[in-house]
Amino acid sequence: xxxxxxxxxxxxxxxxxxxxxxxxxxxxxxxxxxxxxxxxxxxxxxxxxxxxxxxxxxxxxxxxxxxxxxxxxxxxxxxxxxxxxxxxxxxxxxxxxxxxxxxxxxxxxxxxxxxxxxxxxxxxxxxxxxxxxxxxxxxxxxxxxxxxxxxxxxxxxxxxxxxxxxxxxxxxxxxxxxxxxxxxxxxxxxxxxxxxxxxxxxxxxxxxxxxxxxxxxxxxxxxxxxxxxxxxxxxxxxxxxxxxxxxxxxxxxxxxxxxxxxxxxxxxxxxxxxxxxxxxxxxxxxxxxxxxxxxxxxxxxxxxxxxxxxxxxxxxxxxxxxxxxxx
Length: 327
What we know:
- This protein has two domains: 2-230, no CATH class; 240-327, no CATH class.
- By secondary structure, it is mainly α.
- It has 13 helices and four strands.
- The chain starts with a helix and ends with a helix.
């Protein structure tokens, strides 16, 4: 308990200092998202420092509390550092989607190859057990992380949406009992990011979304594979909304002969914004991604999953119809 108090006090103090020196740091880092009057609707350049804030918090934690780190935590942090670096270069130089995909895939394959305890060699979904050999297990594990990272990245479209979603996931992971100290550090860093994002001073950027997406997905796999503290259907409920939105977008883009990895304004939050104001959009989106997990306290996920998918599809159809009628 004493170590947790020290970590919370130290990281909280550090984030207060980061807030005080924020304007100085954003000029030194000099990575901004510029408006283009098309996909980006903000009116002035916004700092893409989300990943940097997460990185600085993790560096302070490692520097002061490294004795608490396990070998597995070190491996996970090194893996997610690669995601962060790719995100930083993407924020600065707008990397090709193919280049990002190749680097991240090679990184994950290497991680799982050298960390066999993290490889998904079996999945138990409602008593149906799928077993995989080592090669297929590495492929499945890599695919799971890439799918969530991409879904999370696509979910980062308007202020507060992805940062609140990440906070929700980290709180769930904290109570699952693995990697609690690192999770606390990330939660405290997210409070600062949420505040600055609310003030429209910062975006997560690809650096932030890739780091959070990778570390959350690897933590989830560890909770499933090692501690057995989470089930496949629980994971599905937690990640269902961004996953569904990504799947729909990919299908629609491919159907319309578009690159599935190139951005557009066809996400759920864009449809909501075309009908409702920003605050209602955020409230509605937050309710959508937390509701399946809350309902799972009272109802079986066998009921929740198909009903939620149906509600999502009906909502998309309804919002699309309204948006078309207003054009």
